[in-house]
Design a protein that fits this description.
Strand content: under 5%
Order of helices and strands: HHH
Number of domains: 1
Distance between the termini: 49 Å
Radius of gyration: 18 Å
Structural class: mainly alpha
Largest sheet: none
Helix content: over 70%
Length: about 110
């Protein structure tokens, strides 16, 4: 049974790391602020959830697990709200999304 828990923990941690790295790659790769914040905002919440889930499995049913649950709930509420606040502030400041012209392929920069 311990091998099963370790395998499941490894899968959760690897999935969380993969999503975190893909969010970082999106931050570098996407062309404008709004697409970058979307890439990071979506992946960081799920990445944190998977990593904390893996840590909960490794810690067993202890006080550490309760603390990890509270951290997870805090991140699930604050991360999307922070992404929304950043996007709203950028929009109110006048930052316009980058749009492709009709008939023009999307830029690769």
């Amino acid at each position: 049974m311990s091998l099963l828990w370790d395998l499941l923990t490894t899968v959760l941690l690897a999935g969380g790391v993969f999503l975190g790295v893909s969010g970082a790659w999106g931050m570098i790769r996407f062309p404008d602020f709004y697409t970058r914040i979307h890439a990071v905002g979506v992946t960081d919440t799920l990445s944190a959830g998977l990593i904390l889930g893996g840590l909960m499995l490794q810690s067993g049913f202890t006080l550490v697990t309760v603390k990890l649950v509270f951290i997870l709930l805090f991140l699930w509420h604050t991360s999307p709200a922070a992404s929304h606040a950043l996007a709203r502030a950028a929009r109110q400041d006048g930052l316009q999304p980058q749009l492709a012209q009709r008939g023009e392929p999307p830029s690769s920069t």
